[in-house]
Design brief:
Number of domains: 1
Distance between the termini: 21 Å
CATH superfamily: Alpha/Beta hydrolase fold, catalytic domain
Strand content: 15-25%
CATH architecture: 3-Layer(aba) Sandwich
């Protein structure tokens, strides 16, 4: 399926703006599509992230990819994997949980009001820190299904400048939609004991979820660099499609 793309600035309740890439399937005029808010890693809307979003949109979803650091970086700033690594880390530290949450609520509200989006079929996904942000999005009542890919900091309750105080796992009982967690068994950022902690928290909260673990490293779905694993990426991508299509 062909896809069109545009850039949209979404206003938040506290006066900030979230720049988003919006990818929409080409179809019948007036059609409404299910939609996914797709969170990037700490390098924001890089080519590798947008290619994943384009691929997802081609399966019949409006994909809304928000910049995650709009409160600390100029809109449109894409970070280089090597040259901007420290800036990416510093930008992460500059973000608050409250800022992330306010941005998410604004983007989801914008999606619900969009004429090409079916407001009762909103989903979330994300990679690395974006996987953690997607887990927080899963706690919103309007989100029907979520795919979290190697969600960084979830087991340590750390996101942005909140270290051990993000309360993401503590809010797990609010999840009402389908959930799939994707891990790489060789990922040093989320070791086995960290994954076990997350799964036990979900079990304690009474949440039904699916787990997919691949013999891969952190960021294995990034289609550039030595850690890229196309075969595992295909399998993980299908797992996401399955959970979205299940609701």
């Amino acid at each position: 399926m062909k896809v069109t793309s545009e850039t949209v600035d979404v206003a938040t309740a506290d006066g900030a703006h979230v720049r988003c890439a919006v990818l929409t399937p080409v179809g019948t005029a007036g059609a409404r599509w299910p939609a996914v808010v797709a969170y990037s890693d700490i390098f924001q809307l890089t080519g590798t992230h947008l290619r994943l979003c384009h691929r997802l949109a081609s399966h019949g979803f409006v994909v809304v990819a928000p910049e995650i650091f709009g409160r600390v970086l100029p809109a449109g700033r894409v970070l280089d994997f090597d040259a901007d690594r420290q800036l990416a880390l510093d930008s992460t530290e500059g973000m608050t949980v409250e800022g992330f949450d306010a941005d998410r609520r604004a983007v989801l509200a914008w999606m619900q009001a969009h004429p090409a989006i079916e407001p009762t079929r909103l989903f979330a996904c994300g990679w690395c820190i974006g996987g953690h942000l997607a887990f927080r999005a899963a706690q919103e009542p309007v989100v029907r299904a979520t795919a979290c890919f190697y969600a960084t900091g979830l087991h340590s309750d750390t996101v942005g400048g909140a270290h051990g105080t993000a309360t993401s796992l503590a809010g797990a009982a609010a999840i009402r939609g389908a959930l799939v967690l994707v891990w790489g068994s060789q990922d040093p950022h989320i070791p086995q004991d960290g994954r076990t902690k997350i799964h036990r928290a979900l079990d304690a909260a009474g949440i039904t979820y699916d787990v997919r673990i691949y013999d891969a490293e952190h960021t294995f779905m990034r289609d550039e660099g030595a850690r890229a694993d196309p075969a595992a990426t295909d399998r993980a991508f299908v797992a996401m499609l399955e959970v979205f299509r299940s609701v």
